[in-house]
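Two proteins, back to back. First:
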Amino acid sequence: MRICSIGECMVELNPAKNNNYNLTFAGDTGNTAVYLSRLGAKTYYMTSIGTDKLSKKMEAFLQKENINNKFIFKNPKKNIGLYLIENNKFGERHFYYWRSDSAAKYLFDKIEINNFAKLFNDINVIYLSGITLSIYNDKNLKKFYNFLKLLRKKNITICIDINARLTNWKSREFAVRVLKKFTKIANMVFFTHEDLKLLKIKNVNLFIKNNTNKKSIKVFRKGNGEVIFFDSNKRETFRLNLNKKVVDTTGCGDAFNASFIFNYFKNNSIKKSISLSHKLAKKVAYNKGALIPKKFFIRKDYTN
């Protein structure tokens, strides 16, 4: 599998002892790219970064994770974004962002999509998220949408995680409108109960019927250990055990999606893919920050 994840990877500051913070690099599509690479997929990341020291460190970090930088653009006038995590006693997280003028926002400014799409002939899968969409202006959203349509014509699979975070959007209504447009052209859609609640979408079945491709795969995580799988032929519900203790839920969904995409495309087994994905997400929840330290990640535990 050759997969390209598109979005924004940032500086992450996560809590350490004595009011200190650990500095690393993360961001939803970046996290998914890292886990895909660790699982064994040939992974590319597409974004725009600066030419400053932190941007260079982040690029080196991605390369160390065996992520190809072929689609990483450099903007000498901008820097990468930053976010800080705070957790409550249940491990649930709150984010503070400094990304309003980051390089990633301007990714599509100078891309000519028809020529650029030709570089993707060897790519099988594209992965993006609602957060990816939230950082682009109207012009670049349209450009991105048309770019994905070109890739669909090449039979490239489009996967989207709704991942609703309203901070970057103009309004909830605008977010809903854009997300519905992109989910209609996707082959695989990931979403959660929390996403639908934030977007004030009350009927999951109606949302799927009206706003997704009938032939697409839908994976709905309810947040209570229940995962529902939808495709054109069936609906299956899986009930899974949750962690008794949670340290930090940051990156759990990103890891779940990476494992599901990798395993499902490898063996087409819904049950096995969901089980392995949940297992990886549980492991991430025991860890501070979005990414498990590499020395604690054992690939064979999350693949079949």
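And the second protein:
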Amino acid sequence: MKRVLFLITCFILLLSCAEKNNKMDLIEAIKIKADKTTIAADGVDMVTLTAVAQNEADLTSRVTFTVNDKKLDGNTFKTDKPGTYKFAASLDNIESDEITVTATTKEATLVLTSDKGSVLAGNPKDWVTFNVKDKNGQDITDNCDFFIDNERIVGNKFRAKNEGQYKAIAKRGNEFSNELTIQANKMQDIILQVDKVELLLDGKDKATFKVYNKDDEDLTARAQIFINDKPIEGNVFVPTAVGLFKATADFNGNKSNQVSITVKEPMKYNLVVKVSKERLVSDGVDVVSFRCINTLDEDRDLTKKVKFYLDGRELDKNYFNTTQNKQFKITAKLGEEVTKEEVVVTSHSEYVPTPRVYFELFTGTWCPLCPRLVIPVMDKLCDEPQVVACGVHGGRDKFATNEGQQLFNAYGLKGYPTIVVGRDKNNQAGSRSKIINSIPESTPIGMAVYTTITGSALDVDMTIKSTETLNDLKWVVIIVEDKLIADQANSVYPKYGNPIRNMEHRYVYRKTHSSSIWGEPISLTANEVMKKKFTVQLDSSWKAENCNLFILITKASDNTVITAQKVEAGSASGY
């Protein structure tokens, strides 16, 4: 009898374990994850996907991943086409929510060219030679390193051992060039070469072919060239559609190698000029500065690439001053692209300085809550003309400074992120509206500042003018560096990932001039001009062209800010 009871008990236990395992195996939901939310559209950088069940059980090897509703082979993705890509995972009839990954184009600062776009694989005499120019058009080939498929080569010449496409770039320090594609073709009796294998569909871009035999005899004029097996007239191809085109040549029945040509849509532009203010004092000192953005490319800043025009006259800077009372029309041009609307600035003899608000955001790349104020407040307001915004990094952050920690302690702050407006520890902000509402209606003080980059130094010529006599003031000069790149911890915005890879950090506090955090004494007499000239030393690790000066006028009694000014290194800002 005892043996029967023992067997029955074992059977019941087996049934309960089976039921438990069935429940454990039951998949109720799928969650898709990505190790990054942004990748470079360079055909190399990739995102890796994973999938888990509701109990965090790994389903990566069992699910089917899709990108933009198309099946993805495996769980990694890379592309050379900028854009937004939507990913999802499914298993049986269960589908996950979508996640989005953005592929962005890296901005090149060097211009790489080659003497040919195609070579013959295995031909010891067929070399492609590269040349590089900087943004000013100066040849810097001898100062650059060259890379083929991300591997450094010796010198600036390359020959291919095997057939296929090779990606070439050049680097100088932290700068890099555009990418060139070199086509390596199989050696044959008839050789077809082309000057470029990537074209834009703009009605002007073209590919020019040449045909040779192995003795280097030029057969171009006597050969027939084909695009996608259809003959063309002459040796020039101007595309009429986007896509991949196959080019070949025929000479007396001898077929050439095949050359692949990719045709892409050109970048679309809507250039818009942004001015620091629309009213200018006509004293020859006040200045209006301007930026140019492309609203069809996420408001990308093109200030350093465009040409600015004042009443149709080309300027060599992105600012101007005047002694005339009149209206000025400002436009910008990039290649064939021009601004559709003119921006009008009016000059007057009446002195009306611009009021501005200054705030400091205490943040850290290590701080997962900090994107709560960095993304919707700092990033949205920092380029507004009447806002001077400073990112003060602290804690275990490579951008942290001793001066920043002194400010944090002086305000009696308890944690990150925190925004302090106007250096008033009792005026803290958690939204854009609070800061916008803190812009004064007027100010008696104006500052016109001109800067010149000289090596690792910044020469500053400043004019201060007040409509009132003001004593017991201080002036503070802060050096900040813009567009610093670092990963950012993030627990606020899941769609950006954690961390946010290669996040751009704006206007990061570096140091004060003469290490004077709270400034030096100053007094102003009504309607009298005060001139100050000084030189600011820049650290060799900073990019001078990304540095800015923030200048504060504060009350000596409590160090709160009366007004502020910001000026980009190498540029100028007005009252």
